Fold these 3 entries.
Entry 1:
Amino acid sequence: MAWNEPGKDDKDPWKNKGGNNQGPPDLDDLLKDLGNKFGGVFGGKSSGGGGKSFSSVGIGLALVVAVLVYAFSGFYTIKEAEKGIVLRFGQFAGTVEPGLRWKWTFIDRIIPVDVQTTRDLPASGFMLTQDENVVRVEMQIQYRVVEPRDYVFSVTNADDSLSQSLDSALRYVVGHSRMDDVLTSGREQVRQAVWSELESIIERYSLGIIIVDVNFKDARPPEEVKDSFDDAIAAQEDEIRFIREAEAYAKGIEPRARGRVKRMEQEALAYKEQTVLDAQGAVARFEKILPEYQAAPEVTRQRLYIGTMEKVYSNTSKVMVDVDGGNNMMYLPLDKIIQQHSTQQRSVTIPNSTLNNTNTNPPSSPAISGRSDRFNSGRD
């Protein structure tokens, strides 16, 4: 039931004790009432003067408390990895460095921005290549905020704008590349191209962001043709491996061949020098013999013949002996005789009668025996 229902005047909350309905009490009267009640607490009296004193002291105390609360509410802290953007009445007023700071409460607003942490942003999807093949590419970039004001105010959401720019750059580069390059040998070129294209896009928007690194995580064909592409990639890897092995083999063979060529050149030069020196020695020897030959031709000729025969017989182990100045020749296999002497460890003596007997031949040589018989038959 409402308090102001007709006939219920005794429930009026604003009805005073005197019974006169005068409406809500005055605020000054209420404060004066409170001053009279608590005047003794502040050293005053419950008279009109005491109420006035209490009002001035209470207001002063309230102002002091309000000032202290306002002053303490203005302190804030900027972390070490952050920078603070100061907005005064909603307008940019500068940036503040890390540490304990103070601001005007209800006037300044502080927006902290992390400028040291490296953030990650992935991008992936199915894309169409230049040769009209579909490939799924996964890439991840790392970036950092370098200009807090541009990061907060240049666009509505810098992270979202960067994500859309990355997707646009990735699709542009993949769309201008062949599928084989994206999957195999051209991955590094694609990564560099995406990095360059992304930087050129975000430069126009002044996002206050710097790209630290771009990682090409994965690139694979659709599952329906994955096995065929795996075989093709394995074949390309084998080709590269064989090429590397061939290059290594060539690098190992070439130095050895060059060494052999150098050795042959040195041997040829040495042979040339030796031939020249031998020829010069022969010329010098001939020049020394010529005067002797001119002085005694027959003696010199005989001496040269004997010296030549000594050289010839010194290099052979077979001796042909003319028996009695006739036509019969006897062959002495000195090599067989020396070998038999070394194996039996005893001396072998050849008597003079053996030399005079043309019918006797060494038993170790059947061919020579036949020749001696032939010589003997002719002699008879």
Entry 2:
Amino acid sequence: MGGSQFRPVYHPAGHDNDLRVAVQDLRTGRWVSMAQLLARTPDWALWTQRTQVLAAVAAGSDVVQAWRAEEPDSLAAAVMHTRVAVERAVRAHRGGHPRTRELWQEAWEACRLTAHASPADPVPWVCLLALSLLDEHAQMEEHRLAPPGPMLPPGPWGLLAEADKRDPHNREAYHRMLQFMYARSRGPLSEAFNFVQWAAGSAPPGSALHVMPLYVRVERYRRERGQERALDLHWVAEDAVRDAQHALHTWFLLTATDLASPLDLNHLAHALWGALHFGDAARVFEALGPYWTTHPWAFRTRDPADQALAEEVFVRARARSLAGRD
């Protein structure tokens, strides 16, 4: 596809064609495709990823409630009920909704019930990590446990350990922990940097945790927009280039990217393009195909809320990278 003909596509399923079908059916109020998809999902990592995407779509409807009414003994339906309850509580908190505390309590109870009903599943623990963001002052003891290593802050480490025990290096669990750290850091993000380096340092080759340092760099870039500095130098600094190359060689080149998170692929393409490593960036853009995500591209625009501007940056970065292939 040439630059003039290329049109990027936003879809949370990315290359996961089966998930895309289930999402489409969800949007029309049908749950059978979702149930069938989850029944044949082969591992906890993909199960976590798919239930997260499905819940984001289902949270605005009663489709999961309808599924539970039809199949009250379905564990998958119980997991999706929990996912939707957590998604609604998080959205309510983000929007300052007066029912936030009530929705939070309902979601917390759903997590505990599902964890008991499906003890091998990491998702209830991932969901409890998501809810930890709502405890802004860490009043719950489980949200201020001592960390497992130096240079790390107190936090919901027990919840992360429970998710990790069920699915080692679960991508969403570690990203939820990172969000917890963002929420408690108004400064230079040193604790978040320490966390992602610690997480990546223990992750095996091929793990998506090797991409996490790129997310913290984007967050730092976002927070520093108001400062008078040559912001593009942020991406060509030696440590930024090293993080981008590390993610390329320890994750991208060692994993099947057809079911990878579109966000991870976009962050890696963005980092390599920003580091002026256009040939490497082109390989990631080719793996992405047409699929793009608003972040991190939005933070390279004058108005991060304008999706059209973010799309322009993505298209421009892609064209420059493909033109720069060796």
Entry 3:
Amino acid sequence: MTKFEWKGVMPAVTTKFTADDQLDLEMFSVNINAQKEAGVHAIILGGTLGEASTLSVDEKRELVEHTVALINGEIPVIINIAEQTTRDAVKAAENAEKQGASGLMMLPPMRYNATDYETVAYFEAVAKSTSLPIMIYNNPVDYKIEVTLDMFEKLLRYNNIQAVKESTRDITNITRIKNRFGDRLNILCGVDTLAMESLIMGADGWVAGLVCAFPRETVAIYELVKAGRIKEATDIYRWFMPLLELDINPQLVQNIKLAEVATGIGTENVRLPRMPLQGEERDRVLSIIAEGVKTRPEIPEF
């Protein structure tokens, strides 16, 4: 099993497309290199932000292999698994391992509101099928299935289930997890607008969205909090909040891709049925981004 720590800033990166709807690996590489230079701790491919549900199997393979080659072992490359069947989830894990991934992020079964028993069995089947370390993505707000602490109790019998992407939007859950499992289950905040609060309460890291456009600021907040420099982190976080709110929105992909354009590390191209923002909403988002870029804070040494 590839060894790494579930800690730090892990961008859930966007997938870049050309104007004629092909993978844009050139611009994708520009963004990944900006993430690396900012000091992120891992890269996550194929999440909601990555428009994974629109990618073909061949495109996913090409994206993983390209990223693994580009990263060249410097930081882990984590693949998100969001499948409708257990068989497909196991296959996706096998493919990720073959293609050189370092770890997996896993959603519960998609499009079926599985019971607790079924959800645990789904995760167990994948855990048994791979040696890769796994982070369970717990997001009952968007995906309607909560992985409870009692469910984690069963899942933690598997050594490769090691972390949770905590997106319940209940900060007190971090304390409950720590009280119950200590350091056995690493916690990464999955909600941009709760990230600093989560880190202060003991989260080990941040699976981030606006990092796609603002990597240095995101890493700075994490590093400053971990160093106990709360005032400096708070100043950056307050500047960042209007931008972070673009992540908790149904059009988060379009929002964040617009932000990537503004910082020079992305394009606006999305894949149908998604379309670029229009009208008043586009103007609103662009004004938030423009204000953020104009008032970008100085980043202290850390």
